[in-house]
Amino acid sequence: MAIRRGAFCAGEKAQLTDRKMDKITIQLVPGGYTQTGHGFIMHDDIIGVSEGTVITTADAQRTFAENPDSRQDTSGAAGTPYVRTDEFQDSIKPWRPGKKLGGWKYCAMRPRTADYVLSMPRGAQIMYPKDIAQVLQLGDIRGGMRVLESGGGSGAMSISLLEAVGSGGEVATIEIREEFARICKANATVFYGYEPSWWKVAVGSFDICCAGLPENYYDRIVLDMLDPWNRLEQAYRVISPGGVLACYVTTVTQVSRLAERLRSSGTWTEPEITETIERTWKADGLAVRPNHQMIGHTGFIVVSRAMACGHAALRKKGRAFKDTHTDIDSAASADGLDSLELRDMSDRKVRKVLRDLDGQVSQLHNPRLHAA
């Protein structure tokens, strides 16, 4: 995003925070206003002032008294301004009798990237900033790199990838749904103020779109889709040796299938699986404790690296007495559960434990113990 300094300008986003830490993110429109539960935020009160300025909401009388013929309401969910009509005043929410409108204070700041991502219009569910940060760090995505992304969604990950590689890099996004591709492009365009020239968006399936890409071209691949394990063959073809693959999945079954497919392919290193839990804290005098609400599980990040052609990935050998792959239902129906040796201890360890327990049980019948 272009670095913006100084006073707010028309067309850019402003984040307003009140004393309760409730936040509103709006796009500034000359002559526009945003309706809130505490009155009306006049955009002209923000345009031309610097960040950190405290603005005060207006009541309905002031709102319609100032230039009533051209006043625009931009409080809609999509943020699209529309010209006020004479019937608009009748559509104002029926406030409770005696409820004071206006006079509520907000602090105006430019939104951070994380703020923008969480407040932007979305079609598909976005990745949370905590997961995006892990993908960028564990995926080692840096300036000047070529990154292939599949699953653009609402553009949260795309914006972060564009920021990470910079104009000297290249990002290619593949999105199977055309409407999501449009949402993704629009959110990134509003974020930058223009459509980034180092970004290409393709609509279609991953395998079909990858078929036209050169081999060993991309440094990093980020997959955010339901079945990344079915895309590993094409991903390996277009990624360079040593390139990092980062997959974002949400369920344990997806993690299991992806990890096993990565291992069985022989072309990817042992997968690293992580989950990030985010918990905020309250610090108010002596009341220093975690907040009641937290962001728990959102998804898993599975990271692996591409092997050179002709070289198989090294695998840790499992112990012979453990079987973690045989399906328990098939084992029970065939040779019985004895064939499924899921044991955490060796036979020698089990015998030792039994000897110790037998000795302890025998002590219960010791006459000297009862005499005491």
What keywords describe this structure?
372 residues; alpha/beta; Vcp-like ATPase, Chain A, domain 2; Rossmann fold; 2 domains; 7-stranded mixed sheet; 4-stranded antiparallel sheet; 17 strands; 28% helix; 22% strand
Mean pLDDT, to the nearest integer, reads: 85
- The CATH architecture of the largest domain: 3-Layer(aba) Sandwich
| Cα-to-Cα separation, first versus last residue | 82 Å
The radius of gyration is: 29 Å
Total tally of structural domains:
2
Fraction of residues in β-strands: 15-25%
What is the CATH homologous superfamily assignment of the largest domain? Vaccinia Virus protein VP39
Shape call: flat
Helix content: 25-40%
Q: Any low-confidence stretches, pLDDT <50, length ≥5? A: 76-91, 94-99
The CATH class of the largest domain, by name, is Alpha Beta
Structural class: alpha/beta
The largest sheet is: 7 strands, mixed
Give the SSE order as H and E letters: EEEEEHEEEHHEHEHEHEHEHEEEEHHH
What is the β-strand count? 17
**Main sheet: strand order:** 11-10-9-12-13-17-14
Total helical elements: 11
CATH topology of the largest domain: Rossmann fold
